[in-house]
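Onboarding guide, step 5: your first structure request.
Type a short instruction followed by the sequence, for example:

Predict the 3D structure of this protein.
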Amino acid sequence: MCGIFAIYSYDGDVENYRQRALFLSKRIRHRGPDWSGCYTIKNHILAHERLAIVGIDSGAQPIVSDDESLVLCVNGEIYNHKQLRAQLEQKNHVFKTHSDCEVIMHMYKELGTELVHHLDGIFSFVLLDVKRNRIIAARDPIGVTTLYYGWRSDMPGTVYFASELKSLNEDCDKILAFPPGHVYDSDTGKTTRWFHPSWWDGDKTAEKPVDLKVLRHTLEASVRKRLMAEVPYGVLLSGGLDSSLIASIAVRETQKIASGAIKDHEPRFDENGPNMWPGMHSFSIGLEGSPDLLAARKVADHLNTIHHEYTFTIQEALDAVGDVVYHLETYDVTTIRASTPMYLLSRKIKAMGVKMVLSGEGADEVFGGYLYFHNAPDDKSFHAETVTRVKNLHYADCLRANKSTMAWGLEARVPFLDLNFLDLSMHIRPEDKRPGQDRMEKYIVRKAFDTSDEPGVKPYLPDSILWRQKEQFSDGVGYGWIDALKDVSEVKVSDQAFAKAAERWPKDTPSTKEAYMYRVLFDQWFPQEACTASVVRWVPRKDWGCSEDPSGRAQKAHQAAY
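The system replies with structure tokens like these:
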């Protein structure tokens, strides 16, 4: 992934404004520390901060066509770029780089905005058609990558685009999160949805019975696809079901690639392993003696990974919260709680020279894995809530995974949100997914990877991990972490100040002192009212009788299990 910044139809002297554009782009250089690029033409500016993962020798951006008629900036990875490139070369398209992203430029020549339907990957991009004085921008279906756009009241025809809010908040007085699965076209001035899966309407309850073998094979294919890299990579390992499964599959698939069982794959191997990075490395973090550290250690032993375990202190995490709010650009309680350990871990990982990790985000939304889903009143409600959670991932877990890691120039890839896997999983009927008295959350995922009835097949995971109850990341790193945040907020936020919260923030009033504390930090970094339009708070379903506190420990299912 990378950082992109662009201005379309700037109403002023572009060359004079170029230095300002470079300054605004520099604010997201943490996303792309490997190289910077800036291109101006007519009254348009496109800038790029690059994190080199694929095509590292020739993939600098913006990519400009030979005749300078097209200019492209991309943040993301296109997993089917080789297949698309082969098709385009048959039509005499000549490529300038080895970047997986260049196919977007050539596909635009063939298909216009319809090109987005053919991309398999995670992406946000801005493409300028100089001859038509047209710009298009698009974001991947679920919003794994981040993108915002903004406007100035004194320049009604000017549009800004950026990977993060902090590049826009000073110059724009209207800012919105660019909606996932949409494309913007300056010809019409409209942003329209291009992603239309049949499961998107949550009122239509899924009806397909689960096929456990297909579920397993589809997730394996998703992980294999995401091993596309020319740099050292590893796996995030919390010791929970989701990250542990991804780690297990990644180890198996990497071994297949190394042995030659899988041909024509991106990683370059020597005698030591992938990308001159011997073995598969796994990374975990937690407070001393935390549930996640202990479980991750067990998984690493089972998978024989080269395991790196980081123990943080509560004070270290508290000291980082202000920076976390700055990088996340949100004041949502659960996102900040979970992001802080991930932010600390990402810095350690990047210091080792790793640029890409696989992670387990998305499974809880797709399969109803959060403990509050135990309270779903019926199958229809359960299914509708999974759809809602997937739709809002770009405000929560996708935002967390992207910005916590990219704060240090580390890319996180999320196999559970692969389009093929999503299409399969979101059509599975809720009675197969829904937890109950005799079935724990994400039962079908666990069962799909349970090989106890398959003689000769090595277990993917130890049973104690495969059937471990859900611990939300902010809980699993150590229960003392959330307790400390609540305690600190009681000290920092007075009763008098909290009583006036509704006067200070009438539109989105904090309901706890902890939430108040985060809102104050957010306003310090982003005081403009325009910045709040892109924030959505994550809370369980209170109308299901759930606690408002997003911690898994606050739910009855957790209490019953322990």
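Each response can be followed by summary notes, for example: The chain has two domains: 3-196, 213-561.
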